[in-house]
């Protein structure tokens, strides 16, 4: 019988715990979000983050910069937020418009406020096994695995996708938790063969229903990061209905990894406030 890994329920529980912890701490953590341009998806994600802040008792400041801004203008905003002692966390909503140097912007965020965990130093510390802040989506996945007692140490984990925001930090977090990790990407020769060896399969490819039952070892835990649109519906990378017949555990889309990303952002922001105190 397959276990549905209910990220929505786990995130609800985590949000309640964070709310309690914040209230007991007497702190008033504050998150600043920076959005450049008017991409509707980015605006929706930022709105969801602000709503979560409100729910747990984190103050949030939304900074909106016009579409045609220069890198210098965005850097000036980051500099101001870095210097503001009332701001504990800074989140730059990605992707940024083409004319903006994304690497420069991410690198400008003060490490102590890097609640997204994308700063090169944060990623380097994660690789070294001594993380300070870790990216929210893969960290949320580690929380789901823990919550459902899915053994990670000694397991063979296969991560499909090697992006900086998901695939690479996911592989590092799993390695730090003593899994044996394989990372696959678009040039992997025998992708199905690699995936079939996974006890824990994480797909962060971004292709609707790409992962089929033939690619999944019977009894594997399958984590679907993908967010894709198919026939007007939101679906993951995994063909959920077919793969749930072979997996021992699986995340749905929506309601799996997505909500955990936001809950982790709240945790990171509270951690930043505690460290700044
Ligand atoms: N739930 C959440 O909170 C959350 C958060 C972030 C992202 N996402 C979703 O997760 C998905 C991935 O996001 P991302 O930012 O990591 O995407 P990305 O930057 O586009 O990376 C996609 C990765 O998949 C690999 N890939 C693409 N086609 C492949 C194929 N046919 N076979 C094997 N590997 C393939 C690419 O390989 P190469 O490196 O060789 O090009 C790349 O490493 C998207 O659907 C995104 O919307 C969800």
Descriptive report:
By secondary structure, the protein is α/β, with parallel strands linked by helices. It has 2 domains: 27-110, Leucine Dehydrogenase, chain A, domain 1 (Rossmann fold), CATH 3.40.50; 136-257, NAD(P)-binding Rossmann-like Domain (Rossmann fold). Helices cover 42% and strands 17% of the residues. The chain is built from 10 helices and 11 strands. It has helices at 7-25, 40-56, 71-83, 102-108, 120-127, 136-147, 167-176, 191-195, 240-243, 257-276, and strands at residues 3-4, 30-36, 59-65, 89-92, 156-160, 180-184, 200-203, 221-224, 228-230, 233-235, 249-250. The strands form 3 sheets. The chain has a 6-stranded parallel β-sheet. A 3-stranded parallel β-sheet has the order 3-2-4, sandwiched between helices. Strands 9-10 form a two-stranded antiparallel sheet. Helix 2 (40-56) packs across helix 10 and helix 6 (136-147) crosses helix 10 (257-276). The radius of gyration is 19 Å and the shape is globular. The mean pLDDT is 98. It binds NADP nicotinamide-adenine-dinucleotide phosphate.
Name the average pLDDT: 98
Helix coverage percent of residues?
Answer: 40-55%
Order of helices and strands: EHEHEHEHHHEHEHEEEEHEH
CATH topology of the largest domain: Rossmann fold
Computed structural class: alpha/beta
Biggest beta sheet attributes = 6 strands, parallel
- Count of extended strands: 11
- Within the largest sheet, what's the order of strands? 1-11-8-7-5-6
Any ligands, ions or cofactors bound here, and which? NADP nicotinamide-adenine-dinucleotide phosphate
Give the name of the CATH superfamily of the largest domain.
NAD(P)-binding Rossmann-like Domain
Rounded to the nearest angstrom, the radius of gyration is: 19 Å
β-strand percent reads: 15-25%
Distance between the termini: 47 Å
Please, how many domains? 2
């Amino acid at each position: 019988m397959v276990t549905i890994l209910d990220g929505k329920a786990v995130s609800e529980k985590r949000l309640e715990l964070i709310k309690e912890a914040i209230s007991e701490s007497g702190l008033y953590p504050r998150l600043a979000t920076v959005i450049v341009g008017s991409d509707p998806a980015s605006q929706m994600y930022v709105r969801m983050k602000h709503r979560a802040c409100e729910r747990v008792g984190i103050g949030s400041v939304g900074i909106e910069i016009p579409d045609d801004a220069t890198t210098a203008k965005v850097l000036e905003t980051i500099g101001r937020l870095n210097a503001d002692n009332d701001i504990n966390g800074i989140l730059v909503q990605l992707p940024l418009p083409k004319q903006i140097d994304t690497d420069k912007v991410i690198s400008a965020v003060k490490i102590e406020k890097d609640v997204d965990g994308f700063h090169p130093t944060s990623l380097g510390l994660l690789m070294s096994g001594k993380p300070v802040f870790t990216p929210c989506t893969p960290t949320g996945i580690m929380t789901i695995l823990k919550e459902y007692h899915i053994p990670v140490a000694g397991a063979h984990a296969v991560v499909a996708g090697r992006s900086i925001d998901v695939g690479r930090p996911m592989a590092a977090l799993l390695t730090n938790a003593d899994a044996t990790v394989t990372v696959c990407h678009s040039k992997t020769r025998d992708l199905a063969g690699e995936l079939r060896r996974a006890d824990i399969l994480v797909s962060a490819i971004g292709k609707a229903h790409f992962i089929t039952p033939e690619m999944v070892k019977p009894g594997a835990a399958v984590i679907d990061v993908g967010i894709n649109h198919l026939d007007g519906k939101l679906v993951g990378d995994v063909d959920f209905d077919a793969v749930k017949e072979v997996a021992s555990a699986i995340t749905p889309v929506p309601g799996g990894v997505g909500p955990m990303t936001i809950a982790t952002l709240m945790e990171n922001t509270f951690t930043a406030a505690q460290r700044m105190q």
